[in-house]
Specification:
Blueprint lengths: L1 E4 L4 H12 L7 E4 L9 H6 L7 E3 L5 E2 L2 H11 L9 H29 L8 H21 L12 H16 L10 H10 L3 H4 L6
Helix pairs in contact: 1-3, 1-6, 4-5, 4-6, 5-7
Length: 205
């Protein structure tokens, strides 16, 4: 398998956490890629017309994207332990993943606004709207992920997405201060971030 990979991308991190948890990381060849709206990569766009990471070439040679699809594929290779097959538990995991991914979308867009757009053209109200999405999602996760994640069990895809969101906020948006008044979520993340898969994928760049 091949993976277009950026060590600063929280969406790539999700996929690598799943791969490591299932012992699949040694089967993945990483292709370095740092795309942005101002840095188009033809080789990446040939695999994913959206020009975004992650994009994974599966064992049959097909390209898969984006992170929920790649994560579910890797989980299927690993035995399908991270996404319940049916019932309320499945919808809970998918709901948490969607919430965390949506907040990550907002966080990445906010990063682009702050790092790429010339300062005179930045839009404070737009930035405030993205921050509101992030804060709302973190508030919901604080209510949802109050129980310790446990070290012995495989994490589910919702937990992984949430962990990668919180790690990205620490990395790119520490000013948001997501731990403030969210003791349950902070305690959850403190334990979850100690998993070997999370320690091996701390974002850099």
């Amino acid at each position: 398998m091949k993976l277009f990979h950026s060590p600063s991308s929280p969406f790539v991190r999700k996929c690598m956490v799943v791969a490591i948890e299932h012992g699949l990381d040694d089967r993945i060849e990483k292709i370095a890629a740092a795309p942005s709206i101002l840095n188009r990569l033809p080789e990446l766009e040939a695999a994913n017309p959206l020009g975004k990471v992650p994009a994974l070439q599966d064992e049959e040679g097909n390209w898969l994207f984006d992170s929920p699809v790649v994560c579910e594929y890797l989980d299927a290779l690993g035995g399908g332990l991270m996404l319940p097959a049916e019932g309320p538990a499945r919808w809970r995991v998918l709901g948490i993943q969607a919430l965390a991914d949506g907040a990550l979308d907002a966080a990445v867009l906010l990063r682009y606004e702050q790092a790429l757009r010339p300062e005179p053209l930045r839009w404070p109200e737009w930035q405030a709207g993205q921050r509101a999405k992030i804060v709302g999602a973190v508030d919901q996760l604080d209510r949802t992920l109050g129980d310790p994640p446990g070290e012995a069990d495989k994490p589910d895809l919702g937990m992984i997405a949430a962990g990668c969101l919180l790690g990205y906020l620490d990395f790119r948006h520490p000013d948001i201060g997501w731990r403030t008044d969210r003791a349950a979520l902070a305690a959850w993340y403190e334990q979850f971030s100690e998993r070997a898969s999370m320690r091996a994928t701390v974002p850099v760049g």
